[in-house]
């Protein structure tokens, strides 16, 4: 059985995750970021693409407000060409790098080769099969737009946790989700809003997939 998949995204009002130059820290405020860490604590694994690693050098661990505790999830990087630097903050134990190349050592992270698609990127099916074999029952996708699009296109995103900041970044900003190649509205993936609540100056919206 595949993991339940949640896409967590922090954007501007117009759905951008970064400026035209890639600057993205921090779009949302501290309250939204704290809630994002709470979401990490309740997922078995969090996943990003290598572009997020190169742009933001994230830690993807759980850093909760004082008095709250929670476990760190398994950290997963999709890195078809093994571009993750050995000095990256994720290049350590507790990180799984999935690639379509012959594995090589990257810090103390675990590197595993999986099946690739026509573009040489890890297939969604191979990623989920590998994570399921490791006992992952809940997966949260945190970036970037192309990774999100691949799981959405496959119809595998069960829930969305959307943090929306009251700023505008414009059409040249980095989109929260890459192209879905939709020709008709009828083909668009549909979600039902479960809740919306203020999170500091931001808005936190929660959605579930319409079956």
UniProtKB/TrEMBL annotation:
> In the UniProt record, does the keyword NADP occur?
yes
Which pathway is recorded for this entry? Cofactor biosynthesis; riboflavin biosynthesis
Q: Does the keyword Oxidoreductase apply?
A: yes
Domain Bacterial bifunctional deaminase-reductase C-terminal, residue spans: 3-175
Which InterPro entries does this UniProt record tie to the protein?
Answer: DHFR-like_dom_sf, RibD_C, RibDG_C, Riboflavin_Biosynth_HTPR
Name of the protein this chain belongs to: RibD family protein
Record Pfam families? RibD_C (PF01872)
Q: Species name for this entry?
A: Brevundimonas staleyi
Q: List the keywords (alphabetical).
A: NADP, Oxidoreductase
């Amino acid at each position: 059985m595949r993991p339940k998949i949640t896409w967590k995204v922090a954007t501007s009002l117009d759905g951008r995750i970064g400026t035209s130059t890639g600057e993205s820290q921090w779009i949302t405020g501290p309250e939204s970021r704290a809630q994002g860490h709470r979401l990490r604590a309740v997922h078995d694994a969090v996943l990003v693409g290598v572009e997020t690693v190169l742009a933001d050098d994230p830690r993807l661990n759980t850093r909760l407000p004082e008095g709250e505790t929670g476990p760190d999830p398994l950290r997963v990087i999709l890195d078809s060409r093994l571009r993750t630097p050995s000095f990256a903050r994720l290049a350590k134990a507790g990180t799984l790098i999935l690639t379509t190349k012959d594995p090589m050592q990257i810090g103390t992270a675990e590197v595993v080769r999986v099946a690739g698609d026509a573009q040489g990127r890890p297939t969604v099916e191979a990623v989920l099969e590998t994570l399921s074999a490791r006992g992952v029952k809940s997966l949260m996708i945190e970036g970037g737009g192309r990774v999100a699009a691949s799981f959405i296109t496959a119809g595998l995103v069960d829930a969305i946790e959307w943090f929306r900041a009251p700023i505008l970044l414009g059409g040249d900003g980095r989109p929260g989700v890459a192209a879905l190649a939709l020709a008709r509205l009828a083909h668009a993936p549909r979600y039902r809003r479960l809740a919306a609540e203020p999170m500091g100056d931001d808005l936190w919206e929660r959605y579930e997939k319409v079956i």
